[in-house]
């Protein structure tokens, strides 16, 4: 399988599709095309995570086949297949559609996918791709004419730039880019308690230093390769700081990193007490992409005393996981404001997290008071995000707030 993304050969994935169609136009027998209309989904279903999840799922299910996948600039995905039976291609489509089963495009309009038989629909597909290209080109021109903000004009890193960045990072000390964010249990009747600190690399600050005017995460596949190098540097940081780590911490690592000699060496040097205070976080996408290695890594980590957290869960994907089957101690669900206006989706989210153990779920990316209140209504007790950071800075949670809470309770009793 070949994946062509936004940093395509021609500079336009839509043009790449048209070039591909031109090359095969005299040999259309057995050729099909499948279009995933992600651009028509609700905005909250077009996040980077959703795009990566769809691409990864496609890659996993048609690996080894003669399929070329194009990610268009509007987030639509076009698959061009040769000698693949239509039922197999439609099974893939239906599987992907399940990720978005609550979106009106899938549940009501049923207009999320379209299958083309190129012997019959070659001209129709060509016209559709030309329209996509025209719309994307117009949007790009409009951005330029109205003066797109700097952040939007930053370019993704190229393959050659990625190699240079990885070479620079290979022996670098990344301590100045390391950040920590607390994860807190907040229960109104009891107070607050710090559960652990997530240790992570600030990609924004790192990018400003080593690749100004570039988006390190702009190309998801190249960024994935970069995270493997960052994992290596994080392991080095952990090794040098292990004597100073006195609390409970989490690290977000790739599954492949756990299987490296570097992690094995670090593991052998860490005190047993510290291993018990370390939580390894894995992205759901990484797990779905590499389930067999996840199981192996999970078994290894558990035997060594680590805990495991699954990160990157949304209200759409929480139904796809089984925390106990995946041997996860914790699960992070990403807060989304859309939940405030969708009682049905909220009810389903509540059902799935209670079914799998409410005490094991964390509501993360909480950036507002509404996020905290929403989680508490669902009886979620553990939170992470900028709003939680603000509460801590203001003294609304943390040691000072807990001391005041205990004083108030003692006063009531007296």
Structure summary:
The chain has 18 helices and 15 strands.
Account of the protein in words:
- This protein is α/β, with parallel strands linked by helices and 414 residues long.
- Helix content is 48%, strand content 19%.
- The chain has 18 helices and 15 strands.
- It has helices at 13-24, 48-61, 86-97, 104-107, 118-145, 150-153, 159-169, 203-210, 220-241, 255-258, 261-269, 272-276, 284-289, 291-304, 343-355, 369-377, 386-394, 399-413; strands at residues 2-4, 31-36, 67-71, 77-82, 113-117, 155-156, 178-187, 191-201, 214-215, 249-252, 278-283, 307-313, 330-334, 361-364, 382-383.
- The strands form three sheets. An eight-stranded mixed β-barrel has the order 7-8-10-11-12-13-14-15, surrounded by four helices. The chain has a five-stranded mixed sheet with strand order 1-3-4-2-5, with helices on both faces.
- Helix 1 (13-24) packs antiparallel against helix 5, helix 7 runs parallel beside helix 9 and helix 9 packs parallel to helix 11 (261-269).
- Mean pLDDT is 85; it is low at 4-10 and 148-153.
């Amino acid at each position: 399988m070949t994946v062509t993304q936004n940093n395509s050969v021609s500079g336009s994935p839509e043009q790449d599709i048209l070039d591909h169609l031109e090359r095969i136009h005299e040999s259309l027998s057995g050729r099909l095309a499948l279009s995933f209309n992600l651009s028509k989904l609700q905005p909250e279903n077009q996040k980077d995570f959703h795009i990566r999840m769809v691409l990864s799922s496609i890659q996993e299910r048609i690996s080894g086949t003669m399929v070329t996948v194009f990610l268009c600039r509007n987030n639509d995905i076009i698959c061009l297949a040769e000698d693949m039976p239509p039922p197999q291609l439609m099974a893939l489509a239906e599987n992907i559609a399940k990720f978005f089963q609550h979106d009106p495009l899938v549940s009501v309009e049923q207009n999320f996918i379209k299958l083309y038989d190129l012997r019959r629909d070659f001209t129709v597909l060509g016209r559709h791709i030309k329209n996509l290209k025209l719309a994307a080109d117009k949007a790009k021109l409009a951005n330029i004419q109205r003066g797109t903000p700097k952040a939007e004009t930053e370019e993704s890193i190229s393959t050659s730039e990625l190699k240079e960045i990885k070479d620079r990072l290979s022996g670098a000390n990344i301590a100045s880019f390391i950040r920590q964010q607390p994860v807190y249990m907040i229960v109104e009747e009891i107070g607050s308690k710090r559960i652990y600190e997530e240790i992570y690399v600030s990609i924004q600050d790192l990018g400003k230093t080593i690749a100004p005017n570039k988006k390190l995460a702009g190309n998801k596949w190249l960024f994935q390769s970069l995270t493997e190098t960052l994992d290596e540097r994080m392991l080095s940081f952990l090794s040098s700081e292990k004597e100073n780590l006195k609390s409970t911490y989490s690290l977000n690592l790739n599954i492949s990193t756990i299987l490296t000699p570097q992690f094995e060496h670090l593991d052998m040097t860490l005190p047993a007490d510290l291993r018990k205070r370390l939580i390894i976080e894995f992205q759901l996408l990484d797990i779905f992409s590499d389930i067999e290695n996840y199981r192996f890594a999970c078994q290894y980590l558990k035997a060594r005393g680590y805990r495991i957290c699954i990160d990157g869960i949304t209200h759409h994907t929480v139904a796809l996981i089984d925390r106990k089957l995946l041997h996860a101690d914790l699960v992070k669900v990403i807060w989304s404001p859309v939940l405030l206006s969708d009682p049905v989706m909220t009810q389903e989210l509540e059902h799935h997290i209670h079914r799998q153990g409410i005490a094991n779920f964390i509501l993360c990316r909480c950036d507002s008071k509404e996020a905290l209140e929403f989680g508490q209504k669902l009886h979620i007790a553990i939170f992470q995000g900028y709003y939680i950071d603000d509460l801590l800075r203001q003294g609304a949670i943390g040691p000072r707030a807990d001391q005041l809470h205990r004083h108030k309770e003692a006063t009531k009793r007296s």
